[in-house]
Each structure stands twice: as C-alpha cells, then as structure tokens.
Amino acid sequence: MQSLLLPLLLVLVLAVPLVMSTRKQKKQQAAQQDLQSSLAPGDRVMTTSGLYGTVADTSGDNTIDIEIAPGVVTTWLRLAVREKVEPVVETEEDSVDEVETSTEEPAIIESTSGIKTDEPPTTAQVAPPLEHGKK
After folding, report:
1. Which pLDDT does position 112 carry in this prediction?
2. Which of 95, 130, 124, 129 is nearest to 112 (CA)?
3. From CA 15, how far away is CA 3, in angstroms rounded?
4. First to last CA, the chain
C-alpha cells in the first residue's frame, strides 16, 4: 500500500496544475472567439500589434476592415484583434486646460550676451568653452 502512495502523490502533484492551466487556456480561447465573432462596424478595437482603430466592415469570414485614420481603411485577420477598447472622450476640462496653456505669453529671458530673447539660452551661451589638454 505504501509503495503505491508515493507514485500516486507524484501523479497528483503534476496532474492538478496541468489540468487547471488547461481549463484556464480554454476559457481564454472561448472569450477571444466570442470577442472576434461579436465585432461589429463602429467598434473601437486594438490589434495584437498595438494599433488602435475602428471596425469599418466585418463581411469577410476571416478578415475585417479597420479604419486607422480618417479615410484610411486596412484589412486585418480577425485573429489579430486583441480587444475592444472604449473610445476616447474629451471632456470640457481637458479642452479648457489646453486653451489656457496656449494663451500664456512667453517669458522674456536675457541671454548672457545681454540681448533679450523669447528663447531659452543654449548650452554654448551659458557654459564657458572647455579647454582640453590642460591640467
């Protein structure tokens, strides 16, 4: 009886994680297939290569058309779609912040030569030249 206990424990220790990982993979594959079959025109998606776009056409069996920029439509395999993403929505606060930052007047900086300018001084204007070879 004891001679069978050790091999049985080894089989259980190896088999249980294998069965659990297989179940997890099957669930992920089923979720991915559901996603790919539920794609419809207008959905915002991300491909496996990280490209964002909007689904334009889903009439092909294995392919879909994704609009990646206004007027630019590319054809992709359905399998290349990684996930659906929510469209980016710009709030009023974001647009107000952009307007406020763009209306600021540039600071006038006096360079080392004594001339006032709108641009920050360059390294050549600020740092003295280095002398090489002298110790």
Report:
1. 55
2. 124
3. 19
4. 85
